[in-house]
Amino acid sequence: MKIKHIEPIAVNLPMVKPVKMSFEEVKSANNALVRLETDDGIVGWGEAASAPTMTGETLASMVAAVRYLAPLLEGMPADSPGDIAAVMSRAHCYLYGNHAAKSTIEMALHDALGRATGKPVCELLGGKRRDRVPVLRLIGTGSAAGDIEEAKRKKAEGYVAFKVKVGVADPLADAERTRKVCAALRNGDLLLCADANQGWNAEQAIAYVRAVEDAGLAFFEQPVAGDDLEGMARVARASRIRIGADEGLHSIEDLRRHHERGAAHGGSLKTIKLGGMKPVHDAALLCEELGMQVNLASKMAETGIGTAGVLHLAAAVPSVNWGVSLTNQYLVDDVIVRPLDFSNGHARVPAGPGLGIEVDEAKVRRYAVER
Ligand SMILES: [Mg+2]
What we know:
Blueprint: E1 3-20, E2 25-38, E3 43-49, H1 52-55, H2 59-73, H3 81-94, H4 99-117, H5 121-124, E4 132-134, E5 136-139, H6 144-157, E6 161-165, H7 171-185, E7 191-195, H8 202-211, E8 219-221, H9 229-238, E9 243-245, H10 252-261, E10 266-269, H11 271-274, H12 277-290, E11 293-297, H13 304-316, E12 324-325, E13 342-343, E14 346-348, H14 361-367
The structure holds magnesium ion.
């Protein structure tokens, strides 16, 4: 089968409540979807959340990039993972960067190929190793008391993995809040971590890690700017707490560089940063080889399409010891027919061919915005 038509669709979806990060407050989800149709009449879907502070791409730029690439890729065969690689190689030849935009096309190609061959995407990526994963729950209400209440409520619902958002306040105040949340969650086999989203400089981050050294954090993500590898390495040397890279990872080479410089013990892998599902899977294989830990993540906030993509990756990668961050639950509504299976703080990998989801096109058009 050949690619017949690649259509980018910008959507805007309401969120349950705004989520505050160190540099931004996300109030509604602005995502780029791709509807890819083959000459056999098979339709595959892909999605990328817009994350300008992370990828440099806006909703409008993603739609423009997909629109630019579409005529260059239409007509190419899409019968195997090798064909998908060839399509993406051509996309990289014609357009540098724009990984989030490219990831929407790559995800849609995997979905279409899976539907055409009757295989779930995780099988196309090497096989299913697990079919249910714990969801890493974000904790960031703005106060220690609010965080503790939220964490306890989520723990009672069955959540076993928590991420405290820091980098917003003074490092010692954030450390105090982190220690309180960790203490409140103690008892039980929980994964606890913190994420500063580049909010601090190395001195501030070092003050934080030293103050939370015994709190029980499995890792601390992106304490300093993504391109400050020396700062990352300094923070990594300053305490026993393991350091994760997120905003600093945009390629397999970035992963190697962090490892070589002692700048991270693991990383958060996202399709929007690495350019698709296969690059994320390749990065996870490299992590395994280098002894680095893996977190898989959606960006705030993805529909069932992008979320299914992350879940198929979570099924296929060697290990996902640093959890799976999903954002679907922050949306008021979704564009898929049957909601994904979220229960007791865990998510199930959707079964069935392709991404294992059915997209409600009428809903897609309802949330579509003109770009
Ligand atoms: Mg992060």
